[in-house]
Amino acid sequence: MPPGADDRLLAVIVANMFAGIMLVRASDATILYANPRFAAMFGYAFGELEGRPTTILIAPGEPRPEEVDRRIISDLTTQGVWKGEIENVKKDGTRFWCDVRVTTFEHDDYGTVWVAVQLDISARKHAEAELRRSEERLGLVLEATGAGAWDWNVQTGEVHFSPYWIASLGYAAEEVPPSVAFWEGIVHPDDMPRIRAALARHFEGHAATYECVARLRKKDGTWRWNLDCGRVVEWTPAGEPLRMVGTDTDLSRQRWSGLQEFISICAGCKKIRTEGDHWRAFEEHFGESSLAQFSHGLCPDCIRKLSDGIVESQSPSSA
After folding, report:
1. C-beta of residue 212 within 8 angstroms of C-beta of residue 196
2. pLDDT class for 1, splitting at 50, 70, 90?
3. What's the pTM?
4. Which domains does the chain have, with CATH numbers?
């Protein structure tokens, strides 16, 4: 290459890079050069930033711009590089976030020079903030309905339990390992066969969702009835369940108050006496005050009595 060609090529590359690049004189934190991309990111014309202090680029607040510079200098001195995220401010006052990497080199005329490479990560920061707000809203909804959430890797057994799920059972976060083994350990043994059967129906495609009522042991040793609901949201290439998410609803916080009252029942017709001295059918009363559903049939004793009555009515002696 002819003399100076390398410098011209480097200048073209730097000027056209997608990342913003800034050179700063370390002795007084003055901007020596900002490529077109860097200037545009901050709302300045190319060449407008040269000679200005770097503090005009950092959004005011905590930490202050001067403190940010001191942190960068400290890391550059001890480690030779500084990496981090900085909230910056554009010429018009708009705030935005950048991912920043700063290194140094020694220049014959300017002494120690910082080389700052910055990428605008505002879109990512906005998405992260929206995700946090969504998670907060979901947490509030679940808490209001007495439900805890879980996210289960079926293949590894790892489970993420929501903070409310953990607290509702009386545990502290550090007492609950992220493992399905912990959950299995607090399920009532008599309920586990029913749970496994419900999971198998869902895993095998016989049920669109998994639903099961079971008991969980709280930290104080008492049992709590729960409605466990979930669905597989990811499958392995072989068609096996990979990831499953769901909720665990405390049924004691649902419509069970009617089961905790002193209830008057007619000895003859078995109706329930309600407020205002009204008498209602058993099924009607509990259908509105609980989650129970009813089916009608005959118990073995009633079947035997009914059969005996039929036989007796058909015997010759009864004719």
Report:
1. no
2. very low
3. 0.48
4. 7-120 (3.30.450.20), 135-253 (3.30.450.20)
